[in-house]
Q: What sequence folds into this?
């Protein structure tokens, strides 16, 4: 398989040598080129699928992480119950006691795509389990993305750049990270739809034909169905139109393309329940509307200009501009002042001001994907493309047309946004691949051309003797400008070597960094044997088999989707995180003393509480490491929960050792994680030695008053506790408390 | 001021009458019709109320869409613009116009509920 990876980059280079750079190509030559093209694209598709299969080979075909479990559960429901029941589904198993209107709060594209695959295969009597379709959908669509990127780059630049772009995007680590087999998430199909919308829109602008608007809008409809990131498209296309206007490239084709596209696209995206009226009522869509209006005003003024002589037109112009301007500004002011046009939501303010979320909305700030990007991520996720982006932009600026200006605007805007949030690196990936491909294609072409022409240097000298002295001087000057031949060879070889290391790096990144299922962990033992930690599934299976069907489980929101997906039980909060108060209630329960938490758990009908504890196994993404976020979020509900109480007194350390804060050592989370942990000595160390925090815990011996330990998995990673029922008789009070209970000790 | 407006309007009308073929006049008539429809719907919504909002949007976007498509068709059909729309013959333009109109009206009727 490694050998194959070395062949793939050679194919586009061979393709470069195969065709003639100048002059017409014969019929035979064209057919040969077409054959090479098909073979290359076929191999690229195969590579795109295969590089994403590492986790299936190492573990099994399982759905990874957290969000994909919700997508899988809904796809399963859709395949089983059909589309009407799916759109009208009110899920009572999540966000107890609120429930969730799934039909109206979901982007159904992913589920419907899986259902279509399932039905089509069933038509030819291939009855494939939904789980397998879901696991392998993203790699197949990654192959599709390569093909569509080939076509996109062919429209912008050339066929050769297209092949290189397809090759780059097939294995770029940034895209692999969100589309491995098992990562059944919206981005897997959304990147394909994104590039398709851009490619068809460029076709609209280049031809000015309504047929392409039709195709582009249908592709956009698929994109809006697939992912909430369609907001990027509906803001990028107006930005592109404005840029074209401001640099004086207004054309009737652009007018036709954008206006028709906007009206049809807005109407069609409102058909999706989740979007609904947002398309005309929120600030995020207003840029598109404003550009539409501006374009109509511009077009109308141009139309009037054609029928008047310049002097008269000058008088009219100011009136027209004032008229249109007043209407536009009045609409904007009335819209935002009356609150009819909703202002930008917190998620989008974070894009402009990265510190906004930390201050105002801790839930958004706590997600690791929303952190600002480190420099090393650019190299890790893009390798050579990271430094080829500016080179590609330079080549595009030398040949400005509709396509190249578009890719420049797309590239520059995504470079900015990718710096704000790690998660948006994915949106930069297609632009990086296209720009990198343009740069690589032109560099390879230029150097190969000039190196193959070097051999004809003696012939040039003969020619110049015939042409005469003046021509000879020009030729001499031209050859003096050339770079030294040895240097050219060095650059060419270096570029090809870089492409090969790109392949090696991408394969390595896919294999080591991005193929972990998160739900199964693996480690190497002393003798190098592989130890599998299957604790998550063990715990969820225990819940599925040993609890009542209507049991309510309380855990932190990260695990909500997995619990409903695998245990089929009701949860209080899950990864949808739409209700911050409900999450804060759970946070407060986790962070408070046992008796306060007990009241909250009783109020929420909770029967089982679940925590993730990594101290025995050395698993560092556990709830103790996430606990401060629970405190912060819980503190938004109840002002008595202050972060400072949970840090060490005096110092500002977050610790669970003896010097930890009193509230920390008395919290429900501490007790649930470390119950009975202090009794065990691990491998000759002291008792209660936490392998993640690397010190002994503070409180080793304590009893649980309101909860019972129900189940702890093999490596102690998941711990489940049963909430005790109220006793028939209150326990007798300890001796030095007065027999008449005071109001402070009486239960609420 | 009104004299200027009258004379500008008169000059515009003269130039328009001289330079516009029958095909384009039909398109212009449709454009004015759709524009008036949009304004009537907008005024109606503001006076009577916007419930049900989806029906209002369906009607508004249908008219707005047909307006924009007719403007596009007019641009593609005008002989002065032929060098810019090299790949569009009048037949293919009209066919695309019908295709987009079908999608627009189908979506609008679906949206109206």
A:
């Amino acid at each position: 398989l490694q050998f194959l990876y070395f062949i793939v980059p050679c194919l586009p280079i061979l393709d470069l040598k195969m065709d003639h750079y100048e002059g017409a190509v014969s019929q035979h030559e064209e057919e040969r080129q077409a054959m090479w093209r098909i073979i290359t694209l076929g191999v690229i598709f195969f590579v795109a699928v295969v590089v994403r299969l590492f986790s299936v080979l190492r573990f099994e075909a399982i759905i990874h992480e957290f969000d994909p479990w919700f997508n899988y559960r809904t796809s399963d429901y859709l395949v089983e119950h059909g589309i009407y029941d799916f759109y009208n589904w009110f899920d009572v198993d999540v966000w107890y006691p609120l429930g969730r209107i799934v039909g109206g709060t979901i982007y159904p594209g992913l589920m419907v795509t899986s259902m279509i695959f399932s039905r089509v295969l069933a038509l030819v009597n291939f009855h494939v389990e939904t789980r397998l379709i879901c696991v392998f959908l993203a790699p197949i669509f990654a192959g599709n993305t390569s093909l569509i990127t080939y076509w996109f780059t062919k429209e912008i630049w050339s066929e050769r750049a297209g092949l290189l772009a397809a090759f780059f995007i097939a294995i770029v680590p940034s895209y692999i990270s969100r589309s491995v087999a098992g990562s059944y998430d919206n981005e897997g199909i959304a990147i394909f739809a994104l590039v398709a919308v851009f490619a068809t829109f460029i076709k609209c602008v280049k031809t000015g034909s309504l047929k392409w608007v039709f195709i582009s809008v249908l592709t956009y409809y698929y994109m809006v169905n697939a992912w909430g990131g369609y907001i990027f498209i509906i803001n990028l296309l107006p930005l592109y139109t404005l840029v074209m206007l401001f640099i004086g490239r207004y054309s009737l084709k652009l007018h036709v393309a954008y206006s028709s596209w906007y009206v049809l696209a807005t109407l069609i995206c409102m058909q999706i329940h989740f979007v609904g009226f947002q398309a005309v009522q929120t600030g995020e869509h207003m840029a598109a509307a404003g550009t539409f209006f501006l374009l109509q005003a511009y077009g109308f003024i141009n139309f009037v200009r054609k029928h008047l002589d310049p002097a008269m037109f000058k008088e009219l112009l100011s009136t027209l501009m004032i008229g249109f301007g007043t209407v536009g500004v009045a609409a904007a002011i009335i819209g935002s002042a009356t609150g009819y046009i909703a202002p930008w939501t917190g998620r989008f303010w974070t894009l402009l001001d990265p510190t906004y979320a930390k201050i105002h909305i801790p839930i958004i700030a706590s997600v690791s994907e929303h952190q600002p990007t480190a420099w090393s991520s650019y190299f890790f996720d893009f390798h050579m493309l990271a430094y080829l982006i500016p080179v590609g932009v330079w080549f595009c600026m030398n040949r400005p047309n509709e396509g190249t200006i578009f890719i420049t605007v797309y590239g520059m805007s995504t470079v900015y946004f990718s710096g704000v949030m790690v998660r948006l690196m994915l949106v930069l990936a297609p632009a990086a691949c296209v720009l990198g491909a343009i740069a690589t294609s032109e560099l390879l072409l230029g150097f190969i051309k000039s190196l193959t022409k070097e051999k004809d240097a003696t012939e040039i000298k003969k020619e110049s003797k015939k042409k005469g002295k003046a021509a000879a001087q020009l030729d001499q000057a031209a050859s003096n400008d050339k770079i030294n031949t040895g240097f050219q060879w060095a650059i060419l070889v270096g570029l090809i070597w870089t492409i090969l290391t790109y392949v090696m790096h991408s394969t390595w990144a896919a294999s080591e960094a991005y193929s972990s299922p998160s739900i199964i962990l693996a480690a190497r033992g002393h003798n190098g044997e592989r130890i599998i930690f299957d604790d998550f599934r063990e715990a969820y299976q225990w819940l599925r088999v040993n609890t009542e069907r209507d049991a309510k489980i309380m855990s932190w929101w990260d695990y909500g989707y997995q619990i409903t997906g695998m245990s089929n039980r009701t949860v209080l909060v899950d990864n949808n995180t739409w209700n911050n108060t409900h999450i804060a209630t759970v946070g407060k329960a986790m962070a408070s003393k046992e008796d306060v938490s007990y009241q909250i758990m009783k109020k929420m009908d909770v029967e089982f509480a679940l925590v993730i504890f990594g101290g025995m196994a050395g698993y560092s993404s556990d709830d103790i490491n996430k606990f401060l976020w629970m405190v912060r979020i819980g503190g938004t509900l109840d002002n008595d929960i202050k972060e400072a109480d949970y840090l060490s007194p005096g110092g500002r350390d977050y610790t669970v050792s003896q010097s930890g804060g009193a509230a920390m050592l008395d919290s429900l989370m501490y007790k649930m994680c470390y119950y009975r942990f202090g009794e065990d000595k691990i491998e000759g160390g002291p008792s209660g030695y936490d392998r993640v925090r690397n010190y002994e815990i503070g409180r080793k011996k304590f009893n649980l008053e309101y909860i019972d330990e129900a189940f702890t998995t093999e490596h102690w990673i998941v711990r489940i506790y049963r909430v005790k029922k109220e006793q028939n008789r209150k326990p007798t009070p300890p001796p030095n408390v007065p027999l008449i209970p005071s109001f402070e000790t009486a239960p609420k | 001021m009104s004299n200027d407006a009258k004379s500008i309007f008169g000059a515009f009308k003269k130039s328009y009458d001289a330079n516009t073929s029958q095909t384009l006049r039909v398109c212009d008539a449709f454009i004015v019709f759709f524009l008036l429809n949009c304004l009537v719907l907008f005024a109606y919504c503001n006076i009577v109320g916007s419930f049900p909002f989806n029906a209002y949007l369906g009607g508004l976007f249908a008219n707005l869409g047909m307006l924009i498509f007719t403007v596009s068709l007019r641009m593609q059909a005008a002989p002065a613009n032929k060098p810019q729309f090299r790949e569009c013959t009048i037949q293919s333009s009209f066919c695309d116009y019908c295709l987009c109109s079908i999608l627009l009206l189908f979506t609008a009727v679906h949206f109206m509920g």
